[in-house]
Amino acid sequence: MTDGKHDVLIIGGGVAGLVLALEVADRRRVTLLRPASDDQGASRWAQGGIAAVLSPLDDFDAHVADTLVAGDGLCDERAVRFTVEQGPAAIEWLLSLGVPFTPDPSPEAAYPYHLTREGGHGARRIIHADDATGRAVVDTLMAHALAHPNIALRDDLTAIGLIGDVDGHCRGVRCLDAGGDRHDLSAEDTVLATGGASGLYRHTTSPRPACGEGMMMAAELGAELMNLEFQQFHPTCLYDPDGPPFLISEAVRGEGGLLLNAAGERFMPALDPRAELAPRDIVARAIDAEMQRTGRDHVFLDIRHLGEAAIRHHFPTIHAHCASRGLDISRAPIPVVPAAHYSCGGVATDLDGATTVPRLHAIGEVACTGLHGANRMASNSLLECLVFARSCARRLCHAAPASTAPLLPGPHGSDRLPAAAIAEAFEAMRGVMSARVAIVRRDAGLAEAADRLARLQAELAPRMSRAATDAELASLWHALRLARLTVASARARRESRGLHYNPDCPAHGDPAPRPSRIRLSDLDEA
User: Which entry of 154, 174, 280, 497 is annotated as an active-site residue?
Assistant: First the structure.
């Protein structure tokens, strides 16, 4: 059924979606679709903080330079500079809303709030709220959104696809309610803030990771996707096979944490002069190699030398969580393992969040702005959410009249797949991606992944044409096709760069590399 006409429709209730809603709501009415559970979405789980040039001892050029180095030659320098230069104003806006960032009480402090340092950064420029920055920011933004009369929050619907018209414009979103009934929400402007695609992998840093559903919804309307092969694995996820995923923040290494092998020896200084503070792709590969060399299923992150008082002060959430799982990190090193964390690729956008589909925007992890290149630098993600949500809002405040062309037909039917079969297919896909398309990829493994995923899609295809009444089945269909596009992008990049490491072509292949670009229509040729 048709569920009204909406002005600005935002899909996703993390930092990016909430910032956009608040910034545009004074000019236009906003409907924001978000999960019923606040535990879903990556924003709330962000620990480290937000990178921005805030100290007088820092400068824009230094932040730009660090980002370009981490991105390994594939960043769009215009996007990098735009993001960095907009950062301080975005932080001031958060402060004006009351985000409780951690103060720096030191009389020698150059900035009133504590700034930490993380991998890839040459200066202390990470503002944070203890070690639970994402939660503090989301809670503050949500309180303001709930109080705004022009923002309607909906947590009763799950988006499964976008509505398009014959002129190629986006005209809203198709959703399902808890009972499987379809609701078509028409909109003047639609914004994806749905998160990334780390859920394509078996082990992630988030309990409920997105599987790239927003990316594929955009691709179904013809949007261009970019840099899908660059999936970031966070170097340090708590290793606990019997418990849920839990991220150990980059800031732990920024404050002096040391990576140790099973023999208690440091291994990073011999591999990179920045040691534990090297960019994430380098640290994750080093940990993976050390695990392969020793045959162990994890390494250790040691902060005992900081002392219990400093650990409790800087990392109260991490200390408490590890204690709840039987580990006192002030007396024992933390077992850690790399896990899928952040998608550097996504829906290609401009500096205002506009995609290649008219009236469709994308912000946050679902988007590929050019900021991250081949590897995201720590704490640039929440910065990107802030900056691009605010720039997108400025654009949407001056939108042109919407298209009135006839709508394209949507899917129909009531086919379902048993929950156990859906779970089995997800596990099969994630097994392939984790084994063949993870931290290290090889030509033979990528070819095997392409074949196995194509066969899995072919097996499911007869049920998918009528998937309009099953949200889990729709999510699986989105994830499976995105996995195939990711493999195709990885096979096409005949070099190793940033997060994409292939020993069969280990060197940089092009002194002036280009981002990869792919559309859903390319899938049959993949």
Answer: 280
